[in-house]
Amino acid sequence: MSASDIHENPHPPEVLPPPYLPPPNVTTGPKRARACIIGGLLVDRDEGHRWFKAFYNYDLPNHHRQDLNIPIRLEKLFLEQGIALGCSFAPRRLESRLSDFLVVTQVIRGPFVHDGPEMYEEVYDVERQPIEGGKETEVKEHLQKILGLNTSGFKSYYSNLY
Predict the structure, then answer these.
(1) Which of 21, 23, 87, 105 could form a disulfide with 75 if both were Cys (CB 3.0 to 4.6 A apart)?
(2) In 48-94, beta strands by DSSP E
(3) pLDDT digit string (tens) for 23-35?
């Protein structure tokens, strides 16, 4: 992949969908089912942009609409190098237009029913959360040494993608 195949957004920056921001005190929503729980290392959005600029010599715009380029390219690199199972968006709780990125290192098959806040799939139930382990340490070292990418923690989300 090169900078020539960057996914441009055809809409001007001022054309944005209305934001969804659940109130900070809302911790539940309607019950819904998901196929699995994915867990992994969190890459901050700003770190993703820094890495993309360093790796592809292309500065993504500050708005969120071209952020899709980051997980698409990371996933391809992860699968080629056998580093991780994939890369996914990791939504921010109270910033609906912004997402960080999740380097997927664990998949727990379901189905799972949960009632977390709408439009936000983070696993709050401690009994269901994957536990960070040796695989994450290995992946974190590889990301830093080979790709120059820094991670900022471990999270898990309900998902239908894996």
Answers:
(1) 87
(2) 86-92
(3) 667 677 889 999 9
